[in-house]
């Protein structure tokens, strides 16, 4: 079997990598990646994976191609699984063919995992179909930056100039005046629409349309830079009509997500779906307890409770994990009532066959108690599986009405000892528009990692709080959030961000 995989990372949008590529990234022993491969994919690598960067940016080579070839062969001979991750498709201006030839000569088996090439994806995200019956029935992919050591150009400008094909140039921004000049001199109409798409499919995508005659001047005015795709042809006239990606409300907006990494994916995915540039900065981690004897005892005595109140998704997950560990399942809840604080917690219970008897309309303790009192909880035995450290309002309020409350820690949250340098650098560059806080612990731990006085230096960054409890914690640090949804949920928080954008 092959132990080297030449993997196409696609154009940059994490959702456009293939399932096969993700499988290789998750299982490889050594990752060798390029400048245009989205670094978010590196999070899928296993902890012990050796990660090597060999990217080339605007002629600045970390390693020349010959050295990259040698590195791949050297690592492959160790017998480990090598993922050679390349932006777009390895065989479309990715030099994957050259690397494949070197591997064959070295007697090393390899596989190719194709990726979506930027020449198709970037125009599509900019509202430009590369073929269209009303404009053209063919497309030509062309390098805009040829090997300088070649004795003569491989570009047939006479054919390009006289053809009605859509022309897609890769790596051509630096040669844009020459490209436009050659096409016009060889027959292309000066009024032919031309589009430039920079960072296609990513949250920082930008694009514009001009004409062959004016595009070089327009690009210079805009200080346009690589990486960009150049599209020439009548299909570019559809840009304004079919554009969809650049209409996303949060496109280009930098949003810090402070949730624990185990919980962040839902919020991250929703924000990215609206075009946001998400900066994950988990301030807490969700951890197992050192000892589960108390939890096991409570489970075995569960029949003594009339109510079980789950206050979080994590509470459900960790409680069920211990149920399974001692050979029990949802049937143990027979005859008792279940409350879920919030729709996400309710869904987590439903996935395990439990339909909650009570889900409050608002997800703060005071409203929860009011709803439980209406359902006759007074004086009953109540179990609350939750984090080791959490607000005491709910158990205290239930005790006031005569409930016998048992608070059962089933997990704990800990401060993530992460460096704040990357986040502070992004704030310095003006790349951050919002910071989101989804609990009091995310606030406390964020300001443990980022000095509040440092954060005050960026008054333009808006703070988004999920609800009043989190807001009170922010106020304790001297900050008033700009955004707080009426619905104290993750979807509510996102809706509030969309309203503000």
UniProtKB/TrEMBL annotation:
Highest taxon in the source lineage: Bacteria
Single GO term (MF): uroporphyrin-III C-methyltransferase activity
Keyword check for Phosphoprotein: no
Pathway named in the protein's UniProt entry: Porphyrin-containing compound metabolism; siroheme biosynthesis; precorrin-2 from uroporphyrinogen III: step 1/1; Cofactor biosynthesis; adenosylcobalamin biosynthesis; precorrin-2 from uroporphyrinogen III: step 1/1
Domain called Tetrapyrrole methylase: residue spans: 4-215
Boundaries of every Tetrapyrrole biosynthesis uroporphyrinogen III synthase domain copy: 268-494
InterPro entries named among the record's database cross-references: 4pyrrol_Mease, 4pyrrol_Methylase_sf, 4pyrrol_syn_uPrphyn_synt_sf, 4pyrrol_synth_uPrphyn_synth, 4pyrrole_Mease_sub1, 4pyrrole_Mease_sub2, CobA/CysG_C, Siro_Cobalamin_biosynth
Coiled coil: none
Family from the record: Belongs to the precorrin methyltransferase family.
NCBIfam families assigned: cobA_cysG_Cterm, PRK06136.1
Identification of the protein by name: uroporphyrinogen-III C-methyltransferase
Origin species: Pseudodesulfovibrio piezophilus (strain DSM 21447 / JCM 15486 / C1TLV30) (Desulfovibrio piezophilus)
């Amino acid at each position: 079997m092959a132990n080297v995989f030449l993997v196409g990372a696609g154009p940059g949008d994490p959702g456009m990598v293939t399932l096969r590529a993700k499988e290789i990234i998750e299982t490889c022993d050594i990752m060798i990646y390029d400048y245009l491969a989205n670094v978010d994919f590196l999070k899928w690598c296993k902890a012990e994976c050796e990660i090597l960067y060999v990217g080339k940016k605007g002629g600045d080579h970390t390693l020349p191609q010959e050295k990259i070839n040698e590195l791949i062969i050297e690592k492959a001979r160790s017998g480990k699984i090598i993922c050679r991750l390349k932006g777009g498709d390895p065989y479309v201006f990715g030099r994957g063919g050259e690397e494949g030839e070197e591997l064959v000569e070295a007697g090393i088996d390899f596989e190719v995992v194709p990726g979506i090439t930027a020449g198709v994806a970037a125009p599509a995200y900019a509202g430009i179909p590369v073929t269209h019956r009303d404009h053209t029935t063919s497309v030509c992919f062309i390098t805009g930056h040829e090997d300088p050591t070649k004795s003569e150009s491989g570009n047939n400008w006479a054919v390009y100039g006289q053809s009605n094909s859509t022309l897609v140039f890769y790596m051509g921004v630096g040669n844009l005046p020459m490209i436009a000049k050659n096409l016009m001199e060889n027959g292309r109409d000066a009024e032919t629409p031309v589009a430039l798409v920079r960072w296609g499919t990513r949250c920082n995508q930008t694009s514009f349309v001009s004409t062959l005659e004016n595009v070089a001047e327009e690009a210079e005015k805009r200080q346009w830079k690589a990486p960009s795709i150049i599209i020439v042809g009548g299909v570019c006239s559809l840009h304004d009509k079919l554009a969809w990606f650049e209409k996303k409300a949060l496109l280009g907006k930098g949003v810090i997500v402070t949730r624990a990494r185990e919980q962040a994916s839902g919020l991250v995915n929703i924000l990215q779906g609206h075009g946001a540039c998400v900066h994950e900065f988990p301030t807490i981690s969700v951890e197992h307890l050192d000892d589960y004897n108390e939890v096991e005892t409570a489970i075995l005595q569960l029949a003594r409770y009339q109510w079980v109140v789950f206050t979080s998704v994590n509470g459900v997950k960790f409680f069920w994990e211990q149920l399974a560990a001692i050979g029990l399942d949802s049937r143990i809840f027979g005859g008792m009532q279940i409350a879920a604080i919030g729709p996400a917690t309710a869904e987590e219970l439903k996935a395990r066959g439990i339909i909650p008897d009570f889900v409050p309309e608002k997800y703060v303790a005071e409203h929860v108690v009011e709803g439980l009192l209406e359902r006759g909880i007074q004086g009953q035995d109540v179990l609350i599986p939750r984090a080791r450290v959490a607000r005491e309002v709910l158990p205290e309020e239930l005790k006031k009405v005569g409930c016998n409350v048992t608070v059962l820690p089933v997990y704990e949250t800990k401060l993530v000892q992460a460096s704040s340098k990357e986040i502070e650098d992004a704030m310095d560059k003006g790349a951050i528009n919002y910071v989101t806080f989804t609990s009091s612990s995310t606030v406390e731990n964020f300001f443990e990692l980022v000095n509040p006085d440092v954060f005050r230096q960026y008054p333009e960054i808006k703070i988004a709080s999920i609800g009043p409890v989190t807001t009170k914690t922010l106020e304790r640090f001297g900050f008033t959030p700009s955004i707080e949804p009426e619905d104290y949920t993750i979807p509510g928080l996102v809706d509030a961000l969309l309203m503000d954008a």
